[in-house]
Design goal:
Elements: E1 10-15, H1 23-36, E2 41-45, H2 51-60, H3 68-74, E3 82-83, E4 89-92, H4 111-119, E5 125-129, H5 136-143, E6 148-153, H6 157-176, E7 182-188, H7 196-205, H8 221-229, H9 246-279
Length: about 280
């Protein structure tokens, strides 16, 4: 099953330059659910904090043989991809030394693209986790390789301010380097029962209702635990039939309509792009 065509993976990023907004968790949830639907998924940890790499170790007990920094500096991708036996999900891990690539001969906009171009035909979806920064090296590399991006926001002024910053950089990359880059919209995380702050920020920044995913991710105690222990990592030890506990299943009920909408938005973007090509 291929996510795009017979050769190219769908490449996706969900981000915001504000820290603590949940982009790593959401990237991992996207990856898990797409893999559960029968897709071959690769998650790329392009954040020197290495939180996705840590979460993979917690959930899948993967063995890290090589990181992005080592692969780039040695010009050798062998053993870079961590596969999970019996699962549709894999990882390209990172470490703190990724930040060293921002200096010297490896500081260029094609570092990530050169890696992805060599392995993407093996996957349906590639999800890239980015650091909470607007530093050119990281975001330019990511925007230069992905097809689609989602902006994550929460009920805070800073997260809404960063929507414009992301758009500005993405538009620059789109116009000069990556004509396949498509904006899918805004996904609300940690949504509470009160819409007062959300509506005020939405009105202040003049964002269209169509930009927002219809479904939001609410504040949830189990989701908060995932950031430490890995997604859906609370196995039901009392049953050999029911795989997870009730709180994991509650999160699944939250995420399934979001994944449905994500795929709908990707398909709509594909159709719009095809229509533009046909009208040229």
């Amino acid at each position: 099953m291929k996510g795009s065509d017979d050769y190219m993976a769908v490449k996706l990023m969900a981000g915001n330059s504000k820290g603590g907004i949940g982009k790593t968790l959401i990237s991992n949830l996207f990856g898990y659910h797409l893999a559960e639907r029968g897709n071959k998924v690769l998650i790329v940890d392009f954040d020197p904090q290495g939180n996705t790499t840590r979460l993979f170790r917690e959930k899948y007990k993967v063995e890290i043989k090589k990181t992005i920094y080592q692969a780039v500096t040695k010009d050798d991708l062998s053993d870079l991809i961590c596969t999970v036996e019996g699962e549709n999900i894999s990882l390209i891990p990172t470490s703190a030394d990724l930040s060293l690539l921002t200096k010297g001969k490896h500081n260029n906009i094609n570092v990530l693209k050169n890696i992805i171009s060599q392995i993407e035909s093996d996957f349906d979806y590639i999800i890239i986790d980015t650091p909470p920064t607007m530093e050119d090296f990281y975001l330019q590399n990511v925007f230069n390789v992905v097809n689609y991006f989602v902006i994550i926001v929460e009920n805070s002024e800073q997260s809404f301010q960063n929507v414009y910053k992301y758009h500005e950089l993405a538009n620059d990359i789109y116009e000069n380097l990556n004509p396949d880059l498509e904006y899918l919209g805004i996904l609300m995380n940690k949504r509470d029962d009160s819409d007062e702050i959300f509506n005020r920020l939405k009105e202040k920044y003049g964002l269209n209702d169509e930009e927002y995913f219809k479904h939001a991710i609410p504040k949830n105690a189990r989701l908060a635990k995932y950031s430490e222990d890995g997604v859906y990592n609370y196995m039901n030890k009392k049953s050999n039939i029911i795989k997870y506990d009730q709180w994991d299943y509650k999160v699944m009920r939250i995420m399934n309509p979001i994944i449905d909408e994500l795929l709908e938005r990707i398909n709509e973007a594909k159709s719009d792009s095809l229509e533009k090509v046909n009208n040229v």
